[in-house]
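Tutorial, part two.
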Amino acid sequence: MADMSFWDHLEELRRVLFRVIGIWLVVAIGCFIAMPYLFDHVILAPCHNDFIFYDLLRYIGQRLQLTDSFFTQTFNVKIININLAAPFFIQISTSFWMSVVITIPYLFFELWGFLQPALYANEQHGVKKALGVGTVMFYIGVLIGYFMVFPLTLRFLSTYELSAEVDNILSLNSYIDNFMMLVLCMGLAFELPLVTWLLSLLGLVNRSFLRRYRRHAIVIIIIAAAIITPTGDPFTLSIVAIPLYLLYEMSILMIKDKQREVHRD
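Running the prediction step on this input gives:
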């Protein structure tokens, strides 16, 4: 690839884009066809009392003999549609986002295949590690968002009463917007170690900098967690804040303090 001309590189990039778009279209069509099943068993699963996370909360409550409604609450949400065309367009948009999430490993695989010939051996190891870690961390964030953050947020907001005269009726559009936002935001939030590592390569941050501003980061993490999960109890807040703080500490471990390395040399 080192002997390839500029136009050869563009041609190779075009092939990569065609392959990525082709795979993405196939997955998107598959998601669209399977969407009725995915809606009932995946997307709407947090609306039902038998969702796995609600079962876990009840199990914890029974084992620790906790009587608070947070651990004993029976929860079911009914979704309604008030827009004639909403089901069709939501099926399209949800299929699009789900296919993007599913095809991310293939996208990184093609990106690695395109970049690898142009990298030195030491650079290949770093880029390969970054793509692998980034993929895994993204999916961990998506799973935590789906199984913990979104169910807690849904249960709090759907049962919150401004007035006894006002009934909470959740629309399909509102549910999907919050579902996609929280799940994808958690996936992106778990890219923090990768982003920090890239910033360290550019010389913008180092280990000493992150350690020096650890207290400031904790405050920012708590504020971010409060925004993501606007609930009043510390348990819900900690479910988001603790993973984000651990990600911050992981970021510190992943990067090197270049100043110390230069001093040693």
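Strands lie at 79-80, 170-171. In part three we will examine how such features are distributed along the chain.
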